[in-house]
Design goal:
With 345 residues, the protein is an alpha/beta fold. The protein contains 13 helices and 11 strands. α1 runs antiparallel to α10 (255-273), α10 (255-273) packs antiparallel against α11 and α10 packs antiparallel against α13 (313-344). It binds flavin mononucleotide. The site of flavin mononucleotide has 22 residues, from loops.
């Protein structure tokens, strides 16, 4: 897939998730088969640009390109400045957030709240495109299907955004009103895909290789974007890639392999956040990993409560090493026992 001057290696994208898809996690997803990732949203408010949180989000050192940065805000001039600010700091693609339903964003009339006011929404798109174009930086837009069930205006916004110069659209198949309730629908994505010429990305509730194939087939979308299903399971991208290429389902990854990925993830995480914050913010990732792995009964809960008591990087790393080794031997024993019974039968 082509996005401006960039040829993406595949059509499997990591969704931006604030507090989750930071640079270390995006790098791991890309290593495990994702073709593209968008940063967590960065505020357009200039007074917050130098905050630790925002400057960490604007640091892309070592991430394989293209570097896509998502900006969120309510004011066209501020959004244009935010685009320029991030381009100066290495953004190669600017994504506009019109998808986030969080109160913090919506109360300021940003995120998916922008879909309520099409004139404002397109004004922002035009300003950001005008700011990015002199640098040759493509602008993309991520939105929901509309504000509420009665106002599913994503197709209208898609057409206007395309006319304003947006080069790719991502659609999460829920309205703003739905939050994360109910199931995502992809008919609106299919409809948008049939109306615009720019690439369209389908997003929402894709959590298996089979669903990925079905959504691609049903919508005709150019790519799919995966969010929550990648939490604790970044190898989902290689599973989907393999399934789309061969029709075969990959077995779950080997725990020795997972151990190496987790330890690399943690080292990268501590490097970005420092030990104090890093150890604490890594806990949620470790909890998700434990839930995603095929572990002995009760092992995930024991692991999570142990991880939550540890406060240093060496202790956290040791706990991960020991736990993964113990789970690997438990699984090996179980399969040896099963093989033994199979042979005996
Ligand atoms: C914890 C969390 C944080 C999110 N943060 C963002 C964000 O910063 N920007 C954005 O456009 N969407 C954000 N989203 C929405 C996701 O990008 C995605 O559209 C949504 O989760 C649906 O996809 P999924 O079903 O694959 O998770 C967030 C979602 C979650 C769960």
């Amino acid at each position: 897939m082509q996005l401006g001057p960039y040829t993406l290696p595949n059509a499997l994208f990591v969704a931006p998730m604030a507090g989750v898809t930071d640079r270390p996690f995006r790098k791991l997803c890309k290593r495990l088969g994702a073709g593209y990732a968008v940063s967590e949203m960065v505020t357009s408010r200039p007074d917050l640009q130098d905050s630790l949180k925002t400057s960490r989000r604007a640091d892309h050192a070592g991430e394989p390109g293209p570097i896509a940065v998502q900006i969120a805000g309510t004011d066209a001039a501020m959004m244009a400045d935010a685009a320029r600010y991030n381009i100066e700091r290495g953004a190669q693609i600017i994504d506009i957030n019109m998808g986030c339903p969080a109160k913090k964003v919506c109360n300021q009339w940003a995120g998916s709240a922008l879909m309520q006011d099409e004139t404002l929404a397109i004004g922002i798109v035009e300003a950001v495109v005008a700011a990015a174009a002199p640098h040759g930086v493509p602008v993309t837009l991520k939105m929901r299907t509309g504000w509420c069930a009665e106002v599913r205006n994503a197709p209208a916004i898609a057409l206007a955004a395309e006319a304003a110069g947006v080069q790719m659209l991502t659609v999460h198949g829920r309205t703003r009103e739905q939050g994360y309730q109910g199931l995502a629908e992809h008919e609106t994505v299919a409809h948008i895909k049939s109306r615009v010429k720019i690439p369209v990305v389908a997003n929402g509730d894709i959590s298996s290789p089979q669903q990925a194939r079905d959504v691609l087939q049903r919508t005709g979308a150019d790519a799919i974007m995966i969010g929550r299903a990648a939490q604790g399971r970044p190898w989902i991208f290689r599973e989907i890639g393999h399934f789309l290429a061969t029709g075969e389902v990959l077995p779950p990854p080997d725990l020795a392999e997972v151990k190496a990925w987790l330890l690399d993830h943690l080292e990268d995480h501590y490097n970005l956040y420092g030990e104090y914050t890093g150890v604490r913010s890594a806990r949620k990732h470790l909890g998700w990993y434990a839930l995603a792995l095929p572990l002995p009964l009760g092992a995930a809960a024991v692991f999570r409560s142990r991880i939550n008591t540890l406060t240093t990087a060496p202790a956290q790393l040791d706990c991960v090493r020991e736990s993964l080794d113990a789970w690997a031997s438990a699984l090996e024993e179980k399969s040896t026992r099963e093989d033994h019974w199979k042979l005996a039968a």
